[in-house]
Amino acid sequence: MIETTIEVSAPAPRSRSWRGRLYAWYLSSDALKGFTLLSPTLLVMGFTMCIPFGIMVVMSFWTQIGFEFDTVFTLGNYAEAIEKPVYRALLLRSLTISSICTVVTVLVSYPMAYYVAFHVRKRKMAWIILMTVPFFSSYLLRIFAWKVILGYNGVINSGLKGLGLIEQPLAFLLYSPTAVVITLAHAWAAFAILPIFISLEKIDRSLLEAATDLGDGPVKRFLGITLPLSMPGVIVASLMIFIPTVGDYVTPTLVGGPDGLMIANLIQAQFGLINNWPMGAALAFDMMLVVAVISLLYIWLTRKAMENIA
Amino acid sequence: MTDVAYIDRPNRPLYVYAIFYLAFLYIPVMFLPLFSFNDNIYITFPLKGFTIQWYVAMFKDQPMWAALNNSLRVGCVSSAIATLLGLFVAKAVTRYRIPGVKPIIFVIMLPMVVPLIIMGVALLILVTRLGFNLSLYTITMAHVLISVPFAMATLISRFEGFDPSMEEASSDLGAGPWSTFWRVTLPMVAPGVLASFLLCFTISFDDFIMAFFLGGTDPTLPIFIWGQLRFPFRLPGVLALGSLILIISFVVVFISLWLRRWGVEDTQSGI
Asked: Where are the domains of chain A?
């Protein structure tokens, strides 16, 4: 690599000044060069992610008084977050909606990822790009599209009425938890496919060949080899959908209605109308903790389950 | 791979499923362009007639142009910074053996999975505690944060796709680290740099949540749209604007993803 050639082409470090020697030593150290290159990014991430998060946690132990903060340490916000039924109910609903959305999305996306990994031979790249593009198009507009589709006079209702299949619009479509699940599943589908696809693609095809030679049918082959080996992808995909969706507040606001509101709506309100920032910080941290515990439990359980099968 | 025909053979039911899946991904958003040409203030079937009046009205809307201008400025600056930061990381992790590099990558990747509301709220607290005003600058800062993981992932896969011996050859021939970087590395990863820039730009251009928490009086385009959604008579205008944004961002993302894999022979390099 670079360091060896530098020493060859440059004069011996001994003949140089201490600065030259320091420079030569620096060039010969992989780790130092690496960290120097990493440092701007780490500084920015530290300033915009780690420090803000730390301040948020500190603030969650404060109390709001009018437009000022009482900075005396208190656990009051957390006590309130646990005791008040509305907070618990909203958190529970968020977790339920996100779990259902995660399960639905992963189940629906698995066959798609399987198809592209095993049955597409030409233009794999085109398929992957086709599946990924919608994820990066405007989130707000995709939610709005579902509002247009599910609305009281929306695409489905006016379409069905036009066909004479229904007399009255179906009111349950929009402003319900179901609408939130559908919209979220659609929004995150592209994110689910990629990890599953990558893990399927990595499977050594000769294993499947061997299983066939030993007389396994397609079902046994799938359950015995493909599914277990693709589980890491499934786990990553589930977490990549579950964690962000618990904290979503735009979808519930636009299509959820009063029954579809989630914990993030409440957090947002604490920083807006309710104006109780410490409470909002506590709720945000609380949500993060619960999500982290559930995610770790999920990883642990799936690992255990896989060990038992193997 | 020739003997595994029983695995790779075409599978009709799965093919049909795949087509349905793509339809599910794409058809919902197609209703926006469809209704944007409909001569009816209400978004409902049956379609009444063809019109371009919503587009004409949109082009005359001054606040929309101001918001678009804000979005373009924030998008360009934040994606340039994010791409540069991603470039440093990609070069560092693919070319040097760094102890403890995995946890570092994990931390940089965090904004991809942490709910955006948490980062929005945390940044809001920091900015107000430091006494800064909310402005386009604070939005830009937030967009750099959420774009860096994508820039890094894009550029790492590009760096992994080319042979480090090119760089070695350059330094063997007497080029210093900087001239090797500018004359060998950068031209080879240039498609990745462009891909990263475009991807970060769409992320910034589409972001609503960070701009919602960290925006001041100057709205970006998604914030402008959000404001319009409250007025039913404004919806056709949103449809027209939304259709244009969707089409442009589809094209930009497509180019970005294609560039990223262009000339790199693997499909396993993630998002």
From this structure: 2-59, 77-309
Q: In chain B, what residues touch A271 (CB-CB under 8 Å)? A: 121, 124, 213
Q: Quick one: average pLDDT of B164-175?
A: 81
Contacts for A143 with CB less than 8 Å, ≥ 6 apart: A183, A187, A250, A251, A254, A255
Please name each of the domains of chain B with its CATH number: 55-261 (1.10.3720.10)
Instruction: Name the minimum distance, in Å, from the CA of A307 to any CA of chain B.
Output: 25
Q: What is the pTM of this model?
A: 0.85
Q: Establish if B182 touches chain A: CB-CB under 8 angstroms.
A: no
B85 in Cβ contact with A40 (< 8 Å): yes
CATH dotted code for A77-309: 1.10.3720.10
Q: Does A96 touch chain B (CB under 8 A)?
A: no
pLDDT in tens, B119-155: 999 999 999 999 999 999 999 999 999 999 999 998 9
Using a CB–CB cutoff of 8 Å, tell me whether A289 touches chain B.
Answer: no
Task: State what percent of residues in chain A have pLDDT above 70.
Answer: 94
Are A258 and A180 a contacting pair, CB within 8 Å?
A: no
**What's the average model confidence in pLDDT over B25-35?**
86
B243 touches B36 (CB < 8 A): yes
ipTM for the predicted complex: 0.83
Residue B269 has pLDDT above 60, yes or no: no
Does B251 contact chain A (CB < 8 Å)? no
- Which residues does A91 contact at the CB level (< 8 Å), separation at least 6? A263, A286, A287, A290
For A55-69, B3-17, B29-43, which range has the lowest pLDDT when averaged over its residues? B3-17
Would you call B121 and A280 a contact, using CB atoms and an 8 Å cutoff? yes
